[in-house]
């Protein structure tokens, strides 16, 4: 083996040191203050009086075009705009970072949900009590996992992968698990159909797809198998539902408890622009100018709604609970403002009907499960992030399950960007539907949850261990803090984070420069740990965009530790998956040179120049290696001067896309 000359026989310098070029940095702009404070002369008394007169004048109203008059929130234009955004943007909503998604699309959360679901499966297989028996699993029939609002499909990949890796310990045959990725737009389904990381699961019959409007559709037809799940054709096993960052974007209603009265919030959707030619233009979202007003109603509000009348008694019970609780527990008369996730409840009603009312739901979103957070009278906050979202009232969702004989498990952590909850619906209810609401008031529903959850000890323990003690939000905070709060984290701490996150590719990519800067000086044990883990990074890679070339970075790592054969493997993968690039060809030429394959090195330096004729590094190396070949073959007596370039000459190039 011939090695590229490097100083002190060490591996080539890491990124940002003397030899390795990292990807071009995005020009940074210093943070600008929101306002500039300028010292001004003290105004004269006349000027001060004039200024006071101006302050007394009513402010001029900002321009606003009304797009819709006051309407029940769940029926308003808001949700048509939401659908329009995702329908027009498609997968680019995630691949281009328009919608934040890392917190719910990484290897850690996929493994977490798989472990929680495994706890539920274990309890159902034991059949030790009535609730477990009613949810008993038939191993000869499919167990459907329905993911709502799948989006790009990254989470689906991680959860299904984690379940398959648990095959030896799972109490239900993995081959009978059918994961169903759903979304309301065909464009997303088309993307999944062609994604290479999903193909093996499709071929094994473990993965299927469906177009499904979670709020309005009452049946799901699976694209591959042709099976239709519906109330008329219920599943033999309970249905498993996964919903991440979805409930916050499904339709909501708005309520307040003010002076002991229950009030409905009506919304008038408007835009701050003077004119809107297309009322479904997603750009309106950035310019919302909405108005609200509140009118007194009764808790039986939903009993007269056609789409919700079948669920009316349970929805009425929840509204009656809020009215009773805040009317009797509001000494300061602050009132309460309540977002009601009616869209999520409709979706769950439709899905549970496909399995005779038997379901387990795992959901992560931004929201609240502590009713104390609802105190105070205020209009709802709408968060805009390309699309928009509301805070999810997980207390109301849990109450919907409890009212029907099920139970809720909530993570009590309040300071969290992602709240994870789990819900179980057993298909039976010991309390008649026509029972009065009074037995549910106060802390009665919380006690029901505690008693019922105790009958599912494996689920309860798994949820506590993996979703609460250290859950997906904690992992997100840890990796974010290590990146933003530590200018130069140690390689040991980064390696520990990677192991905790099951070698998640996004985490690896985020810390790639730290790894390459320090791996050359790391001890053999730490380097060996990284060498064992880096292949797992690629195994976990689910490509969404070509700007994040994970295979290329894996190649840089192995070149840095002088494992040129493995570096070549990942550079080759990069070329096959992302496309040929002059930097990649140049780095492959260096690998071939270091391995002693001079003709292959020449070929790849030529390929690099063919892709970028102005690429001086490849041209320099081509000339150098051609001279060495000439000397070797006795055609040039002057010699190639192989040592002349020293450490700099052996530097592998960084940044697959300059």
TrEMBL record:
PROSITE patterns: TPR. InterPro entries: NDUFAF7_sf, SAM-dependent_MTases_sf, TPR-like_helical_dom_sf, TPR_rpt. Residues 1-64, 631-658 are annotated as: Disordered. The keyword Coiled coil does not apply. Residues 641-658 have a biased composition (Gly residues). TPR repeats lie at residues 582-615. Residues 49-58, 631-640 have a biased composition (Basic and acidic residues). It comes from the Eukaryota. Keywords: TPR repeat. This is Type II protein arginine methyltransferase.
């Amino acid at each position: 083996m011939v090695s590229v000359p490097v100083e002190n026989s060490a591996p080539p310098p890491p990124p940002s040191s003397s030899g390795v070029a990292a990807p071009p940095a995005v020009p940074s702009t210093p943070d600008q203050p929101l306002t500039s404070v300028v010292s001004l002369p003290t105004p004269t008394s006349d000027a001060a009086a004039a200024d006071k007169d101006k302050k007394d004048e009513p402010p001029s109203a900002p321009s606003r075009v009304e797009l819709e008059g006051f309407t029940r929130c769940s029926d308003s234009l808001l949700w048509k705009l939401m659908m329009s955004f995702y329908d027009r943007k498609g997968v680019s909503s995630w691949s281009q970072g328009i919608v934040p998604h890392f917190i719910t699309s990484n290897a850690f959360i996929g493994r977490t949900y798989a472990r929680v679901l495994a706890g539920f499966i274990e309890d159902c297989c034991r059949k030790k009590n009535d609730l477990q028996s009613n949810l008993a699993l038939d191993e000869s029939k499919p167990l459907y996992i329905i993911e709502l609002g799948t989006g790009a499909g990254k989470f689906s990949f991680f959860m299904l992968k984690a379940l398959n890796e648990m095959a030896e310990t799972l109490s239900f045959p993995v081959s009978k698990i059918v994961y169903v990725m759903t979304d309301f737009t065909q464009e997303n389904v088309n993307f999944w159909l062609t994604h290479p990381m999903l193909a093996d699961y499709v071929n094994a019959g473990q993965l299927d797809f469906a177009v499904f409007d979670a709020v309005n559709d009452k049946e799901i037809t699976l694209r591959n198998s042709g099976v239709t799940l519906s109330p008329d054709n219920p599943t033999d096993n309970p249905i498993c539902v996964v919903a991440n960052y979805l409930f916050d974007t499904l339709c909501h209603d708005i309520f307040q408890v003010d002076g002991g009265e229950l009030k409905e919030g009506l919304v008038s959707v408007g835009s701050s622009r003077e004119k809107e030619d297309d009322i479904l233009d997603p750009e309106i979202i950035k310019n919302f100018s909405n108005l609200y007003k509140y009118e007194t109603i009764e808790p039986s509000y939903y009993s007269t709604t056609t789409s919700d009348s079948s669920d009316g008694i349970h929805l009425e019970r929840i509204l009656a609970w809020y009215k009773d609780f805040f009317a009797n527990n509001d000494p300061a008369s602050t009132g309460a403002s309540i977002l009601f996730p009616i869209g999520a409840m409709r979706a769950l009603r439709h899905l549970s009907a496909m399995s005779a009312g038997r379901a387990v739901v795992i959901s992560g979103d931004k929201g609240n499960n502590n009713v104390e957070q609802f105190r105070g009278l205020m209009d709802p906050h709408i968060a805009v992030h390309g699309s928009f979202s509301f805070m999810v009232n997980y207390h109301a969702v849990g109450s919907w399950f409890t009212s029907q004989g099920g139970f809720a498990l909530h993570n009590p952590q309040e300071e969290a960007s992602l709240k994870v909850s789990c819900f179980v619906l057993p298909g039976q209810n010991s309390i008649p539907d026509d029972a009065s609401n009074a037995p549910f008031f106060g802390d009665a529903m919380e006690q029901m949850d505690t008693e019922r959850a105790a009958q599912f000890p494996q689920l309860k323990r798994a949820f506590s261990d993996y979703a609460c003690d250290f859950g997906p939000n904690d992992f997100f905070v840890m990796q974010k803090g290590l990146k933003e709060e530590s200018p130069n984290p140690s390689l040991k701490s980064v390696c520990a984070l990677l192991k905790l996150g099951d070698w998640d590719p996004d985490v690896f990519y985020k810390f790639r420069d730290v790894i390459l800067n320090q791996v050359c000086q790391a001890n053999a044990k730490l380097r060996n740990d990284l060498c064992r883990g880096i292949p797992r990074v690629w195994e976990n890679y689910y490509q969404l965009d070509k700007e994040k070339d994970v295979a290329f970075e894996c190649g840089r790592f192995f070149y840095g530790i002088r494992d040129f054969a493995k570096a070549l493997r990942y550079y080759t993968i990069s070329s096959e998956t992302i496309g040929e690039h002059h930097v990649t060809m140049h780095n492959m030429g260096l690998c071939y040179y270091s391995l002693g394959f001079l003709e292959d090195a020449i070929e790849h330096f030529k390929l690099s120049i063919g892709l970028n004729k102005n690429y001086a590094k490849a041209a320099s190396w081509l000339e150098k290696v051609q001279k060495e070949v000439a000397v070797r073959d006795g055609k040039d007596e002057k010699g190639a001067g192989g040592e002349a370039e020293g450490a700099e000459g052996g530097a592998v190039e960084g940044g697959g896309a300059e």
